[in-house]
Amino acid sequence: MPIRSLRSIVAGQPPATAATSATVYEAALLMKERGKGALLVLDGSKLAGIFTERDALFRVVAAGRDPTTTRVGEVMTPQPQSIHPDEPFVHALRVMHRGGFRHLPVVEDGRPLGIVSSRDALDSDLYDLRMDLELREPERE
What we know:
Blueprint: H1 6-10, E1 17-19, H2 24-34, E2 38-43, E3 46-52, H3 53-61, H4 72-75, E4 77-78, H5 89-99, E5 103-108, E6 111-117, H6 123-136
Parallel strand pairs: 1-2
Antiparallel strand pairs: 2-3, 3-4, 5-6
């Protein structure tokens, strides 16, 4: 089975992005329109953070904030972990598994190229990850 690079996964799929000044409402509309669970938050062309459905739910709705006046920059996850596009997809899955998150920005030379998520995994990738994790974990008695 060929090893898929992250570059091949994000190619031709421009990332959903918003400026730090965008409102949560505007970001939610964009996410709905694009069918995405996360978007990259930019300060100019630089990655400033990531805004996910969980951020909207926990940091806005559950906190009683108004999505029409709350800025994405106030409730995003700042400076998220990212990964280089030439890494294999299975490595991104390991990073997401270890970090307990489902979206990972793909960044090259400081420029965000896209986002990969656990949903991008095919059965073969998940199988490879499970086998790899089982080999790495110490046996339990």
